[in-house]
Design brief:
The complex is a heterodimer of chains A (about 170) and B (about 100).
Chain A lengths: L4 H32 L14 H5 L3 H7 L6 E2 L3 E4 L3 E4 L3 E7 L4 E8 L6 E7 L6 E6 L5 E9 L2 E13 L5
Parallel strand pairs in A: 1-9, 3-9
Antiparallel strand pairs in A: 2-4, 4-7, 5-6, 5-8, 8-9
Chain B lengths: L4 E8 L2 E8 L22 E8 L2 E8 L8 E6 L7 E8 L4 E7 L2
Antiparallel strand pairs in B: 1-2, 2-5, 3-4, 3-6, 6-7
Classes of the chains: A alpha+beta (about 170), B mainly beta (about 100).
Chain lengths: ~170, ~100
């Protein structure tokens, strides 16, 4: 007699679980649509900021998030950065890519708390050249990735930082 | 937001050399207020978009590791006098600014 209610409750449990999963799936679908930009309110900017890649605390994770698990060394990427940066808060970086069809330039400071610094999408009409200033927490390699024709190319340079530029 | 940015564009042949300065703290979220000791929250420019006569030529995503008061230099091909170049940014708090210049 006492065992009777238990199987009765069980199907009820299952259906509520199913409902829960359905809600979850719907939520997930909404999130996906949101990410794809379907339900997004009108904004100034087009694509989504790559949170996963920027939040990554390990280089390999950041590379995975931008889809660059493998990259070919290239002497067609010119990377200008100081060998010694006295102030890690301002490290000038200049990149020129001679790789035909350069689509995107990524700047990575390997030992920063979050290694990925910036992503520049280069549309037709822009020279594959970017010059900017970045912060470096400590001496590390600056790695520049170039995406061209769906492939990744890489160049890097060691920068010695005298005073780190992350905390204070 | 009149003083949020500065832009300088110079035409060299048919290439416009554009230099932009944005006035922004670019807080990493790691710094502490020297007096109160409180952590200064993350506050940084996330997106920067440049257009040439209304067409997007550069679309950048940034982290908090771009230097304070960010500087960026880029070059636009096929430019001529009278062309309009705009640069706009948006930060992680939804603040925005933009600036336009005309090539001469």
């Amino acid at each position: 007699m006492r065992t009777q209610p238990s199987p009765k409750r069980s199907p009820h449990k299952k259906s509520s679980r199913r409902e829960f999963l359905r809600t979850l799936a719907f939520g997930g679908a909404c999130a996906a649509a949101f990410a794809a930009g379907w339900l997004r309110p009108v904004r100034l900017l087009a694509a989504e900021w790559n949170k996963a890649a920027f939040d990554a605390k390990v280089l390999a994770e950041a590379l995975k998030s931008i889809g660059a698990t493998s990259a070919t060394d290239s002497d067609q990427i010119q990377l200008k950065a100081p060998e010694i940066a006295e102030n890690g808060a301002i490290v000038p970086v200049e990149i020129t890519s001679r790789i035909p069809g350069t689509q995107t330039i990524y700047i990575i400071a390997e030992k920063n708390p979050q290694p990925l610094v910036a992503i520049f999408d280069i549309a037709a009409g822009l020279e594959p050249f970017i010059s900017t200033r970045i912060k470096m927490g400590e001496s590390a390699k600056i790695r520049v990735l170039v995406k061209a024709g769906g492939k990744f190319y890489v160049a890097s340079q060691e920068v010695k930082v005298t005073i780190g530029g992350c905390g204070g | 937001m009149a003083d949020a940015m500065k832009i300088r564009a110079q035409l060299q042949g048919d290439v416009a050399d554009v230099k932009v300065l944005m006035f922004h703290p670019m807080e990493t979220g790691l710094r502490k207020d020297p007096i109160s000791g409180d952590v200064i929250p993350l506050h940084f420019i996330q997106r920067v978009i440049a257009t040439h006569n209304g067409k997007t030529v550069m679309d950048a995503q940034w982290s908090q590791a771009v230097s304070k008061n960010p500087f960026v230099n880029f070059r636009i091909r096929g430019a001529k006098p009278g062309d309009k170049i705009t640069v706009s940014w948006e930060d992680n708090k939804g603040e925005k600014a933009s600036i336009e210049t005309t090539l001469n």
